[in-house]
């Protein structure tokens, strides 16, 4: 990756890598009690020639407030993210096309939440997604300088070395910025409630637990997160569903795990936010593990 990596690590931070119930878990305890955990890894294998599906053949890792992908980019349609996204081209340059026809070409491209776009690259890429309430998102937003899509220096985050496990890198990135994002304590509590099991609590119920009306909570989220709370909740549901897919669950079970009404609801949400379908993601994952497809 081009450019010099900025210094990483934080005074007082400690990293623990272990195995919980057969599932890889990397935890970073940060000063002030903040904790970042990367739990699930979704490995994607290439689809055979002739399949009319996307063929991302890399690795996804999921943390509590961030996610990352490393590998070649492949077919995707115009889509939007609830998270802020950083595209890092490991070889050459990546291209991001906006809905208005503009193209952005560079080694590092930053995309703000809810901006419709499509990604293309001839080489390997690392994609970083940071949820809007996170410290990492706060730092990246500062680099965007109010631009919807911007080309920035790759050195703004620690270099993703090819030999380093992607979940380790995600932990290093999450722990490399000292400023903790400050959001309203009631909103923080509501996000925690809604994150416990997406689909279990409605926004109105979460608001009641925090001493707010549903409308006031929505306004607070829109002001401080920069996107509707319902959009953030769909993102969190997709994260849960993707974890289930990574563990080999059938798509119907993955939809239920994410709190979606059915597979069709999951498919619409994933295509809108990632430009892909659950079926294609599942097929890539299964091919990489030589498992059979489950509906």
Keywords:
3-stranded antiparallel β-sheet; alpha+beta; disordered C terminus; 2 domains; 295 residues; Arc Repressor Mutant, subunit A; 9-stranded antiparallel β-sheet; disordered N terminus; 9 helices; Jelly Rolls
Structural topology:
Elements: E1 14-20, E2 23-29, E3 35-43, E4 59-63, E5 66-72, E6 84-89, E7 94-98, E8 103-106, E9 108-111, E10 117-121, E11 124-130, H1 135-144, E12 149-151, H2 166-174, H3 185-196, H4 203-209, H5 214-225, H6 229-246, H7 251-258, H8 263-274, H9 278-289
Antiparallel strand pairs: 1-2, 2-3, 3-4, 4-5, 5-11, 6-9, 6-11, 7-8, 7-10, 9-12
Task: Summarize it.
The chain is an alpha+beta fold and 295 residues long. It has helices at 135-144, 166-174, 185-196, 203-209, 214-225, 229-246, 251-258, 263-274, 278-289, and strands at residues 14-20, 23-29, 35-43, 59-63, 66-72, 84-89, 94-98, 103-106, 108-111, 117-121, 124-130, 149-151.
Task: Report how far apart the termini are.
Answer: 39 Å
> What is the β-strand count?
12
CATH topology of the largest domain: Jelly Rolls
* Biggest sheet descriptor: 9 strands, antiparallel
- The coarse overall form would be globular
CATH top level class name of the largest domain: Mainly Beta
Oligomer kind: single chain
Strand content: 15-25%
Report the radius of gyration as a whole number of Å: 18 Å
Overall structural domain count: 2
Number of helices: 9
> For the largest beta sheet, what order do the strands appear in spatially?
1-2-3-4-5-11-6-9-12
What is the succession of H and E elements? EEEEEEEEEEEHEHHHHHHHH
């Amino acid at each position: 990756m081009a450019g010099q990596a900025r210094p990483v690590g934080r005074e007082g931070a400690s990293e623990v890598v272990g195995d919980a119930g057969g599932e890889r878990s990397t935890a970073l305890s940060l000063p002030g009690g903040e904790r970042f955990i990367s739990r699930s890894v979704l490995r994607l294998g290439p689809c055979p020639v002739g399949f009319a599906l996307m063929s991302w053949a890399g690795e996804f890792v999921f943390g509590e407030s961030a996610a990352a992908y490393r590998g070649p980019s492949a077919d995707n349609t115009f889509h939007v993210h609830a998270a802020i996204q950083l595209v890092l081209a490991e070889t050459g340059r990546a291209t991001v096309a906006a809905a208005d026809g503009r193209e952005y070409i560079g080694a590092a491209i930053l995309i703000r939440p809810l901006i419709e776009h499509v990604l293309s690259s001839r080489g390997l890429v690392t994609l970083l997604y940071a949820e809007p309430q996170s410290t990492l998102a706060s730092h990246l937003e500062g680099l965007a300088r109010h631009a919807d899509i911007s080309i920035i220096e790759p050195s703004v985050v620690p270099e993703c070395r090819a030999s380093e496990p992607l979940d380790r890198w995600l932990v290093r990135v999450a722990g490399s910025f000292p400023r903790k994002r400050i959001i309203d304590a009631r909103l923080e509590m509501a996000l925690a409630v809604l994150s416990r099991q997406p689909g279990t609590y409605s926004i109105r119920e979460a608001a009641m637990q925090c001493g707010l009306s549903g409308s006031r909570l929505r306004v607070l989220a829109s002001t401080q997160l920069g996107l509707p709370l319902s959009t953030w909740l769909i993102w969190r549901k997709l994260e849960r569903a993707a974890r289930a897919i990574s563990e080999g669950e059938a798509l119907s079970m993955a939809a239920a795990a994410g709190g979606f009404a059915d597979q069709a609801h999951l498919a619409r949400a994933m295509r809108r936010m990632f430009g892909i379908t659950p079926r294609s993601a599942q097929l890539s994952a299964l091919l990489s593990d030589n498992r059979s497809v489950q509906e």
